[in-house]
Amino acid sequence: MNGKKIISSNKAPKAIGPYSQGVVSSDHIFLSGQIPLFENGELCTGTIQEQVGLIFQNIGHLLETQNCGLQNIVKLTVFLKDIADFDAVNSKMIELLEEPYPARSLVQAAALPKNVDVEIEVIAGLNKNGAK
Fold this sequence. Notes:
This protein has helices spanning 48-64, 86-96, and strands at 5-7, 22-25, 28-34, 73-80, 103-108, 118-125. It has 132 residues and is α+β, with helices and mostly antiparallel strands. It has a single domain (5-130), classed as CATH 3.30.1330.40. The protein has a six-stranded mixed beta sheet, with helices on one face. A hairpin with a 2-residue loop joins strand 2 (22-25) and strand 3 (28-34). The two termini are 24 Å apart.
């Protein structure tokens, strides 16, 4: 293993526990689960699509710290409080992501931090030679 490098962005909400916003290791970026928080830590209470949009905005800020973007995502895990939001989340993800889409798991969770409706965690690949 090449060790690990901790990443963070002041454009994304700070971690709300004893964890890092993200870690780079072995040509990959591993982001902690992101919930719909604004940069100031305030919770977004809009529609599920607005919440997913904010989460991906925060994911983008974290990926940018490594000269990467949403196109670098290789695996997503989506946790939903209510599986009935499945179609709305898919619709927003089609809007935000380009083909070929990353691999994904989507599960209904009994409870999420701060009682949010959605949490998304990401694994992304680093660009070779720092290219974007």
